[in-house]
Specification:
Elements: H1 3-60, H2 66-71, H3 79-89, H4 98-104, H5 111-121, H6 124-127, H7 146-153, E1 156-173, E2 186-204, E3 209-223, E4 232-246, H8 252-260, H9 265-276, E5 312-314, E6 317-320, E7 327-330, E8 333-336, E9 342-344, E10 349-356, E11 362-367, E12 372-382, E13 389-390, E14 395-399, E15 409-416, E16 419-421, H10 441-449, H11 458-471, H12 475-486, H13 496-499, H14 520-535, H15 544-548, H16 562-577
Antiparallel strand pairs: 1-2, 1-4, 2-3, 3-4, 5-8, 6-7, 8-15, 9-14, 10-11, 10-13, 11-12, 12-14, 12-15, 15-16
Helix pairs in contact: 3-5, 5-7, 11-12, 11-14, 12-16
Length: 580
């Protein structure tokens, strides 16, 4: 071994030992002080949390469920209190007609948000609005004031009435209807209709003041159905949005309310962040969706607004909550996609709005030619600015979950002449939402057996499936109607053997008249045929099941108690449709 190398190693080992001894001595002399300082820091942190944060935790809770947060720190829950908030919040759109509602849907006031705002602003212990020197604790109790808070935070709209003019071509017979050759002759004439409609000019909300500007627009559509004159046109003269401007800093009106309430700057920031977590409305999913195999047509009128055919989670039209029974118009379609998914412009156009917009979250509005408009809601990130020209397929934003959203998705709308229309019409989708889908006999049988139903029989279910297939009607809907009409025919009912022959009550009843003479197969086919008859002429914005029992249906209605029947059938249809 080289003695020089050995000497270096020996010296290194000696130095290491001396250093370890020095560090040991230093630790022995200082550890009591280090532990003491650490203990003091821990005590300070605990004290700060106990003094400043625990009161907020007790009042606010940590969950984003409004009901759970509302009752956090209280002794008992009172469901009727939350019902008061639901009732009061529902007044945000009182006295508005359908035309007005379609323009203000981004400014909905969620009841859960109203409850949380009241819970924090009117809780004396949170804002320390009680007298520390006064005796008793009654003044420290939280007293709900939904009506008072509602009047402070409700949206206020300003309208201007304009004339909408529709010029429609019609085909009419002339000259007595018969010419020299013995055939009827037809000419095209024009029919003009003028209707007064309201335009939204301003929306004052707790988020901001939104000011709308418009220009005249013309929308021309063509139709050839049942026309002896060939192609006919309908032209609507209305107004198109040119811009939506905000006049204040985002959430400045809400901050002004907090300043008026003498809320400290620190608590203002806390409340602003906290309240935003509860801007989620009660969303019920649509039950009439395309088959999983469907994909947008490549030559559709519009470009699909996301790169891939992500599943549609909620369709266009009136949605009826299966429990509350609340009817709510869904003005677009929801496309489920991961946060950050690129959002594409559906057509060439001009950006008229690109910022946060109430319950719509981060939103973009594009104005296109021929009076068409597309809207994109709940965005995570926006790439474009108001006034910018965009091309079809251009990346304009990213999918998000901002505003009233329970998860990442794109809410996509199409409007013509200001009216929301079904976006699926522009992507080559022609499917009937109530068309035939085969029953999963075994799975449905098991589901019905759990409900003690006399329908839980393979032959009976096969007859129902065959009736639906013959008429191209969804047999799941036929079953749902038996649930609403006869509770799926309870097997232990004394008249079950007779009820099962006509559980749809066609011809009035299973018990009397012609309805009592049918077999199950016959009554199933008649019920399917009735659905086809009643489905004719359904407006695009009306729920298909609701139309079956609507008093506005010119073909008649299925049940006398329309609203309850629609609610029950819709809920049962949604359940049955998920059984596989």
């Amino acid at each position: 071994m080289d003695f020089g190398e050995w000497g270096k190693r020996a010296a290194k080992m000696v130095l290491q030992r001396l250093l370890m001894k020095a560090l040991g001595a230093l630790w022995s002399s200082t550890w009591p002080y280090i532990l003491g300082i650490g203990a003091i820091l821990i005590v300070c942190i605990v004290a700060y949390y106990a003094i400043f944060e625990l009161p907020k935790e007790a009042i606010l809770g940590t969950a984003t469920d409004p009901a759970q947060a509302f009752f956090s720190g209280t002794k008992e829950e009172q469901a009727d209190v939350l019902e008061d908030y639901q009732t009061v919040a529902a007044r945000w759109n009182e006295d508005l007609n359908d035309n007005q509602l379609s323009q203000v849907d981004p400014y909905e006031l969620p009841w859960g948000w109203l409850a949380i705002v009241d819970r924090t602003l009117n809780d004396p212990q949170f804002l320390k609005t009680y007298d520390e020197e006064a005796e008793g604790i009654e003044q420290k109790d939280f007293i709900p004031k939904p009506d008072e808070i509602f009047e402070e935070v409700r949206p206020v709209f300003t309208w201007e009435t304009r004339e909408e003019q529709t010029v429609e071509q019609i085909c009419v017979a002339v000259g007595g209807g018969v010419n020299a050759g013995g055939k009827k002759s037809y000419v095209v004439k024009e029919r003009t209709t003028i209707v007064n409609k309201e335009l939204l000019m301003k929306a004052n909300t707790m988020q901001n003041e939104f000011v709308y500007a418009y220009e005249p627009s013309v929308n021309t559509s063509k139709k050839t159905q049942s026309s002896k004159c060939g192609t006919l046109t309908k032209t609507v003269y209305w107004f198109a949005v040119t811009s939506v401007e905000t006049t204040k800093q985002d959430w400045e009106p809400m901050r002004e309310l907090l300043v008026k309430r003498n809320v400290s700057d620190k608590d203002q920031e806390f409340l602003m962040d906290y309240w935003k977590e509860y801007l989620v409305a009660d969303e019920s999913e649509g039950g009439f969706l395309p088959d999983d195999s469907w994909s947008p047509a490549e030559d559709g009128t519009l470009r699909w607004p996301v790169p891939a055919s992500h599943k549609i989670t909620s369709s266009f039209g009136v949605r009826i909550h299966p429990i509350s029974g609340v009817r709510k118009m869904h003005n677009g379609i929801d496309i489920g996609a991961p946060e950050g998914t690129t959002v594409l412009a559906a057509a060439d156009g001009t950006v008229v709005y690109a910022a946060a917009m109430g319950s719509a979250g981060n939103a973009i509005i594009l104005q296109h030619q021929n009076g068409m408009q597309t809207r994109y809601y709940h965005l995570f990130r926006i790439y474009v600015k108001s006034g910018q020209e965009v091309e079809v397929g251009q990346a304009i934003a990213e999918v998000g979950t901002t505003g009233s959203s329970t998860g990442p998705h794109l809410h996509f709308e199409v409007r013509t002449s200001g009216n929301p229309v079904d976006p699926m019409d522009f992507f080559g989708y022609t499917g009937d939402p109530l068309k035939y889908r085969a029953l999963h006999i075994k799975a449905i049988q098991t589901w019905l057996q759990a409900r003690n139903s006399a329908l839980a029989n393979v032959k009976t279910l096969q007859m129902i499936d065959a009736a639906g297939k013959a008429k191209n009607v969804d047999p799941h809907l036929l079953l749902a109607i038996t649930g609403a009409e006869q509770s799926f025919v309870p097997a232990d009912h004394p008249q079950a053997s007779r009820m099962i022959r006509n559980p749809w009550n066609v011809f009035g009843s299973w018990n009397t008249g012609k309805g009592s003479t049918l077999t199950t197969g016959e009554s199933a086919r008649i019920a399917a045929n009735t659905i086809i008859k009643l489905s004719k002429g359904r407006p695009a914005n009306v729920n298909p099941i609701e139309w079956l029992s609507s008093r506005e249906n010119p073909s008649g209605y299925y049940a006398g108690d329309g609203d309850n029947w629609t609610r029950n059938v819709s809920a049962l249809y949604d359940q049955l449709s998920t059984i596989k």
